[in-house]
Amino acid sequence: MRHWLMAFAAAALVGCGNLPGDAARVLPLGESKELVVLMQNSPTTLYVDAEGNYAGMEYDLVTRFAETHGFKVRFVIEPSYTKLFERLRNHEAHLAVGVHVDTTQDGLNFGPAYQSVAPVLVYNNKDKTEDQALDELYSGHAMIKTLPQYVTALNHAKTEHADLNWRLVDEMDGEELVEAVSEGKLDYVVVGSHVAELAQNYYPQAAISREFGETPPLAWAVPQQDGQLLAQVRGYFAGIQNDGSLAKLLDRYYGHVNRVGQPDALAFLQKRTDTLPNYRDWFQKAEHETGLDWRLLASLAYQESHWNPDAVSPYGVRGMMMLTSQTAQRMGVDRLDPLQSILGGAHYLQLMKDTLPENVPEPDRTWLALAAYNVGLGHLLDARELARRQSKNPDSWLDVKAMLPLLRNPKYFSTVKYGYARGGEPVIYVETLRNFYDILVRFEAPYKPSALPNTGDEVVVQNPGNRSLGINSRVVTARALAAL
Description:
- It is a single chain.
- The chain has 20 helices and 14 strands.
- The protein is of the alpha/beta class and about 475 residues long.
- It has a seven-stranded mixed beta sheet with strand order 1-14-5-2-6-13-7, sandwiched between helices. Strands 10-9-11-8-12 form a five-stranded mixed beta sheet.
- Helix 11 runs parallel beside helix 14.
- The chain is globular.
């Protein structure tokens, strides 16, 4: 779904082999001009997205930082959270990113905090309520599996609940633990709230309970000796906080995650099994004709009609893609024929994208086009105009979605060309659709499977453990579960 790379940045993946030597020290950054970065892979850090590009909050943050300072980047995937710090102390990298501030880590400094994360309990709600789960844990009749970064919070919880027990897991990531709970392979895990909220849409049987205490925010770790790099990191985060870039990134990856509740996610997953196979080939035909990801088009159709070719709304829109008679006529399709409706809706969405200025980046271009599909192009243009008047970016979905609800207010709609609109609806529409798209991307293969991201000189991803980085190919392995 998402991803904007800097114009200069390409990527290469080294799939196997280790770094030279057991403790390969990196050259000083001033000599090499190559920034070596330790990180874990996950939906919150780095992965290969639906379009076959590297993506992730940390990936975007680091590549933008590197561009600012003229560095090349070498990411090194390290599955063990503990080893991130060990390897950084051994000068095997210049940075460790996506980590919690930890003042007990000798020899390391931390940059500015940029994201708050809470430790939360995840349990399978098929068999028990939240209160039952907590009673079982507090009485010592069950055990939590958790990650090293949340042990301090559990230690604090144990001061109030002496029978609370847990076991540390350091070779799995938070999403893998949530998946194991959803599938009934684990009973309880404590992970970060950002991971749990993202994963809950894919695994709705995994319920999120109350916070388990507090944990320090996320930051980048830097060897204590590298004061110059630490100063550069501080300056970078000050800049992206001031210019709004950090807020846009947080919205890109997390702004939509709470729009779909558990019943809706379960219903969608069930229809994916029961109904989607009847139309998958037609969505893929629409991708062939338009270039739009068939999973995005299927999500659009679900948002419009729940994949019901006979759907009718009180406003006169009909069919699988809920086209007006005027739009169907414009696209040259019979909106009551499901194949033609899918093709007509796909071409109409592409038309909305093509109507936007060429400089509008992805994924904002797609989200803006979807808003236009829902509320009409004219009202989207009005919202973009309001963004300009308020010195916001009309090409940014984050800024435009803040303007759309103003189209209900006469103070604003009376000043623009197309007037009143139920402007809050397209915001909910797009953010909900994004959740459905995330689910399909996770469980449905692309129409044209992409190779690993294109190779280049500016960004390299080293993956010595051969972890699966693709967003729709991550599974909990039997070996990982056996280790628990």
